[in-house]
Design goal:
heterodimer, A: 165 residues, mainly beta, Tumour Suppressor Smad4, 2 domains, six-stranded antiparallel β-sheet, 13 strands, globular, B: 484 residues, alpha/beta, Helix Hairpins, Immunoglobulin-like, Rossmann fold, six-stranded mixed β-sheet, five-stranded antiparallel β-sheet, 26% strand, flat
């Protein structure tokens, strides 16, 4: 399955245009994510699910700073509705683009994870990425939002990112 | 007789040996009187001529080379596939087939006479402008018919009336006078009109004609949709094709699609009554030049592939019903070719394998006594560990892009019917963007207006829905046509 970079819908391999939003999926085909052979990071089992968590559509602006030790990059983005994390976004002002942080080699998917508001504060959701999303070394199950806090360690595949706000 | 060759005179095939030719000649020549000569008996002359040519190796070779050009030209099919190599995968994958059937280029087709029936809606809602335009349109298109064509006209509301019995058009004024007398009243029961129409058409020897019933309606039919579709099915088996045009916004578009599906006919939305005449003319023109009839594609796909969606792109855009054992593709008509796009799903393949997809199309060729021509092709797909990323053929990409917009619009409607208004509105907004990207400004504006309406009122307007449906549908064929 492939995932549409615009709307996140799952599509069969070989689909030319996203059935949900009409995006040309052909242009993305050449940037498929490789499954990494092994992980040098040990990881803990998934954290327990958070009950009564509801995603919040309400827009609250908040500055989030992402620090990437590996590349010594620092990205500051404003979380309004959502911040998408992955590679090669058309709009890098609202999404965290990890292409220049060696994202391809470190197993970051094109659309890897998403940060949103919820009734329990800011949450992160893995979007069924090839190499997984880790929160403080806990491997997050796909498509389930988990609350994060300032200072948390996030890992997308093998790429380590610290988030501060 | 055009099909006669030296081989057929001797009752032999083209591969006959010299011995067989000599034997055949001896037997056939023995049937003529002993004193038969070329002058007194032309049949004997033919036989002698055939034998002389075919028994001489060099003359036979020359004759054979000429024969190739004089055999009836046949239809040709080309098949394109989105990719011929696919990766081994534990999940299902999609691929697309674009099948194009072209008529032989150098043949001038004799026109086959039409047995045309118009079934006209005269329910109360047609009263006024609509009926006036309809009457005018009918009188105008009568001029487009050839002297050997036959026309019948029925009008219907909750019951049917025969306006004009099957007739040649030599008394045009009388036909027009009858049409002028149609009065609007009553509800809409389409079955009444269809049944009366088909009954009229059956008075004519159907084998000799190109039989088409064109339904015009502006309303929902009540309680008889099943009957209508059953009738369309039976009629298509006896070579009566259906086309259906909806006027205004208050009619059931998926019903009309279903109605024309068995015969591969055309359904369309006539938004503006002044356009009725154009749609009728187009249809009649298409029917005038039929290269092949009743094209069918056998659904012989291998078990690990499933056709998901089928759409006819040319000569007009129309969804294809995938439910039967054969896909009905309708007629190969008009100037261009017939093209269809199929979306297929390949089940997860865990090992390297080769998949063969047989393409078998049958068609009736009217000029050859409705001889059934069969076209067979094979498409090979290799499932392999290393499948290179290759760009699909341009034509497929273009057609899928347009088709996808049509399907998005269909999904919007499904979302609404399922009560998912929010999802529908999001989808419609996406569609607006895609329409803009494609340069379809008017449709994009329509989609945008409908998004607003959906957000405010939780529904689409009937007009808007049909404009989007038939607008995006029309785009699909347009993209391919522009290329030609």
């Amino acid at each position: 399955m492939i995932r549409c970079r615009d709307c996140g819908a799952s599509q069969y391999e070989g689909t030319l245009y996203c059935s949900e939003c009409g995006r040309n999926l052909l242009q993305d085909a050449k940037q498929a994510t490789d499954v990494l052979p092994f992980s040098e990071f040990a990881h803990k089992p998934p954290p327990p699910p958070v009950s009564e968590l509801e995603l919040d559509a309400e827009q609250k602006a908040k500055q989030l700073t992402f620090v990437i030790p590996n590349s010594r990059h620092r990205h500051t983005l404003t979380l309004n509705k959502q911040i998408q994390i992955g590679r090669a976004f058309d709009d890098t002002t609202t999404n965290l683009d990890l292409t220049d942080d060696n994202g391809m080699e470190l197993g970051v998917s094109r659309l890897h994870a998403i940060i949103q508001w919820s009734n329990k504060g800011i949450v992160i959701t893995d979007l069924g990425s090839t190499n997984g999303t880790f929160l403080n070394n806990h491997h997050l199950p796909a498509n389930k939002p988990y609350p994060i806090q300032s200072g948390d360690e996030l890992r997308f595949g093998e790429l380590l990112v610290h988030v501060f706000y | 007789m055009s099909g006669e060759t030296y081989y057929s005179i001797l009752g032999l095939s083209k591969t006959a040996s010299l011995d067989e030719i000599q034997d055949a000649f001896a037997v056939l020549a023995g049937r003529f009187p002993e004193n038969a000569s070329i002058d007194s008996n032309p049949e004997y002359g033919k036989l002698l001529q055939a034998y002389e040519v075919l028994s001489d190796k060099d003359r036979r070779a020359i004759y054979d080379s000429l024969l190739v050009e004089t055999t009836p030209p046949s239809l040709e099919a080309t098949v394109q596939i989105s990719r011929t190599k696919m990766a081994i995968s534990d999940s299902a994958q999609l691929f697309y087939l674009l099948i194009e059937i072209t008529p032989p280029t150098h043949v001038v087709r004799a026109r086959r006479p039409l047995n045309l029936c118009l079934a006209l809606d005269r329910s109360t809602s047609m009263q006024g402008t609509r009926l006036d335009y309809l009457k005018t349109a009918v009188s105008l298109i009568i001029d487009k018919l050839a002297p050997d064509d036959i026309i019948s006209i029925v009008s219907y509301s909750d019951r049917a009336e025969i306006v004009v019995e099957p007739t040649h058009i030599n008394n045009k004024n009388q036909i027009i006078a009858h049409v002028r007398n149609i009065q609007a009243s009553g509800g809409t029961e389409i079955y009444q009109g269809l049944y009366a129409g088909v009954t009229q058409m059956r008075q004519i020897s159907l084998d000799q004609y190109n039989n088409q019933l064109i339904l015009l309606t502006d309303g929902h039919t009540y309680g008889d949709t099943e009957q209508c579709i059953e009738l369309a099915q039976r009629a298509s088996e006896t070579k009566i094709g259906f086309s259906a045009f909806g006027i205004g916004a208050q009619w059931n578009d998926s019903f009309l699609d279903q109605l024309v599906a068995p015969s591969g006919g055309r359904s369309a939305y006539i938004e503006d009554p002044t356009q009725i005449v154009k749609y009728l003319e187009d249809r009649i023109q298409g029917l005038g030049t039929i290269h092949a009839r009743n094209l069918h594609l056998k659904k012989a796909f291998p078990g690990n592939t499933t056709p998901q969606y089928g759409f006819k792109l040319l000569p007009f855009s129309q969804p294809i019903d995938l439910s039967g054992s054969e896909l009905n593709l309708g007629n190969l008509e008009g100037k261009g070719s017939l093209a269809i796009l199929l979306e297929l799903l390949l089940q997860p393949q865990e090992h390297e394998t080769r998949i063969t997809i047989p393409i078998e199309i049958t068609a009736e060729i009217p000029e050859q006594n409705n001889h059934i021509q069969k076209i067979t092709k094979q498409i090979q797909i290799l499932v392999t560990a290393r499948a290179p990323e290759t760009a699909p053929p341009e034509d497929i990409v273009k057609a899928v892009r347009m088709l996808n917009m049509y399907r998005m619009n269909e999904k919007v409607w499904q979302d609404i019917e399922a009560g998912h208004i929010g999802v529908a509105a999001t989808r419609l907004r996406h569609l607006t963007t895609r329409l803009l990207e494609a340069g379809e400004i008017q449709l994009a504006q329509q989609a945008n207006a409908e998004t607003e309406r959906l957000n405010n009122a939780g529904e689409l307007s009937e007009e808007g829905r049909k404009r989007l449906k038939f607008g995006t549908r029309a785009m699909i064929g347009q993209t391919l046509k522009l290329e030609e």
